Amino acid sequence: MILRMARDLLPHVVEDAETDTDEMEDDDDDVEYERFVLDERLASSNGLCRQFNSILVKFVTAHLRARELHRKILSYESERDQADEEEEVDVLQHNYLMLAQLVLLYFRRVAGEQSRHDDESGFWTTLASESIEILGALQQLLSTPGFVAVIGELLHHDNSLVRKKAMQLFNERLQEERDSLTSGEALLFIDMLDELDSILQNVEGSENSVNIQTALLSVDILARNFAGGHSKRFQQVLPTIVKYVDQDVVNAPPMTLHLFGCAFVCLSSICRHVGPVVFPLLPKFFPRLLNGIEYCSSTNGVSGTKAVLQCLLAALEVFTDKIPQFLGPYLPAVVRALLSPAVLSTAPSNAQVLMSIDCCFLNLCNHVELRQLLPTLFGAYEHVLTLQSDTSVTRLFSVVATVVNDLDLAGIRKHLPSFARFFVTSLDVRRVHASKLQDLDEVEDEVLECLVQFILKLSEKQLKPLFLKLAEWAQTHVGSSGKSGDISRRIVFFKLVVKLSDRLRGIFVPYYAHVLEFLTSALRESRKVLMQKPPRSSEESDSDDDDDFFASEEEPPTKKVKLGSSTSIVDAKTERELNTLLLSTVVRALDGCFVHDTDGFMEKDRFDVVLSPLVDVLDVLQYDSSMREFVLETVAPCLANLAWAAKSDLLWKPLHYAVLMKSRGDNASVRLAALVTVEKCYQVIGDEFLAMLPESIPFLAELMEDTNDEVEKTCHRVIKQIEDISGESLDQYLTT
């Protein structure tokens, strides 16, 4: 009833009763449309005429959306006419299609009036928009053949807004019904590729960018749903899509950039389902993709480029997953693009970008053969260092770690030499590239973590030669770099020893036999540097001249820094910092040996090699109070662990005595460190260490009356600890 009423009323607002209804395909631009003529009984003025048009269009739209009402009315009529359900559906579809045809005709008339008038009030524009809404409501009611026929008609309309609305309705309908379409209905949608291809080709240049973008979206939706089973149909549209990516985006306007991104999304959707079909066009679009990523990441602050960057990275993710076998010539450029600081800098604030980068690298690691991938990754190391970006360097080693994690035994045997060369080169980052990095320790730690992960994959037969090679490398004198170069190599090597000790524990302890003397030598050298007073500026030297005149003769002489020699001051400061780091790393490395020694590795000869250099480290507190935390929390426990590893009171005695002798020094900090070391020995070893008590009584008695409050309090704490372990009071021994 409503549909009939709408069909009966609309002709009154379309044209005179005497005017024939045009066929929908007759859309001659030269046709002169007569002004609207309404029955005098319906409207008596121009204002009422317009109002009637608007009300009628809204009325039709509202009632079309009440689908249940249609069925109730039709059910009532079918009961009256005794029609079956199939006839109901046929009647509905017939009415919907007739109304759609009438609405199209009505819209053409409205568009004609809109083009003939200035439309200052906006009436015709509003009416055109509202009449299109009727089609939006109808598209949910029309059968697939009827809907596709209507859309096909709209795509040929002269008005670009109508074509845009038609594609939007097409996209909505396809996304809503894609899971319920029959094969025949699916073919009807696929056949629309020809219409969309025609819009994208834009031969006459009349199509605007918004419509092209909408057409790309339509092809994208079709590809996601049907490309897998109809590869040839989608292959035909590929050259047209590539036309929109085969261009330089550097100087392109924003809309062209958006089309660039949309075209790559569309292209990647086709590639996802048809794969190698896109290979012939790869040289045209893939270099453009990498250039686009570089440009969009470098101009991330420009409006819209972030969204385009996401589109491009999502496309790259698809290409690295579906056609990695064809990307060999582009691998170095792909890796450089993904490691670009500009790209990585957007990732923390954009989870989608970070996910795409991760997926791209994962695809490369999983799908590209190692013979191609490893040279690309290893070759990227020098490149990322030139970028002066810590993030790029650490990201590279994260990717290498992913490759290492998936290595099998055959891969390790085949590529061990190339991995070894790469890691030896990378370990020199502190010596060669320190000035290019903001956080050297973080980068170095990432390098070491990657190397350790690789070492854990090796057999003992493979590990030992590699470890000895690294030890030899660390001890090689670097002539051009002087001592600082040697120190840098030793630092990173001893850091590696620390990490291997933490991971391999007792398995790694025998390897200390190859580097124990190297470790103790480093202890002596670094202690020697740190036993000098820290360098001071020339101003500080001038102000302290008088104080130096009254300095104690017992203090070791210190070298005076010449006035104006700021460079030597900086060099001395740098050398001191390096030696401080070297010392702490060596102590941690030795501690790893002692803690995990369960098989008697620290026998007498090795114990004697380590003892004196390690105990003498306590003396660094004489000249550098900033080392206090390191000595008390690292060196003291290390000495206690050395005693535990020795497992013999015959070896405990020289260690205990050497530590106690430090408690008679002039420096309170050194005395405190000696006490803390004794305390740690009792904590680690327990009651067995009570065998050393008689020897310590005289020293403890002296320290109980120390002039330094902290030393005195610590001494009482140590005595209390010994009493708790022994179960008896020491007062009678200490007061005798």
Topology of helices and strands:
Layout: H1 2-14, H2 46-64, H3 67-81, H4 85-116, H5 123-138, H6 144-154, H7 160-177, H8 183-190, H9 193-201, H10 209-226, H11 231-242, H12 254-274, H13 282-298, H14 305-322, H15 331-338, H16 341-346, H17 351-367, H18 370-386, H19 390-405, H20 409-426, H21 429-433, H22 440-455, H23 460-475, H24 482-504, H25 516-530, H26 538-543, H27 545-549, H28 566-595, H29 604-616, H30 628-646, H31 649-662, H32 668-685, H33 693-703, H34 709-726, H35 731-734
Helix pairs in contact: 1-2, 1-4, 2-5, 3-4, 4-5, 4-6, 6-7, 7-10, 9-10, 9-11, 10-12, 11-12, 12-14, 13-14, 14-17, 15-18, 18-19, 18-20, 19-22, 22-24, 23-24, 24-28, 25-28, 25-29, 28-30, 29-30, 29-31, 30-32, 31-32, 32-34
Describe this structure in words.
The chain has 736 residues and is mainly alpha-helical. It has a domain at 1-142. The protein is built from 35 helices and no strands. The longest helix has 32 residues, at 85-116. It is elongated, with a radius of gyration of 42 Å.
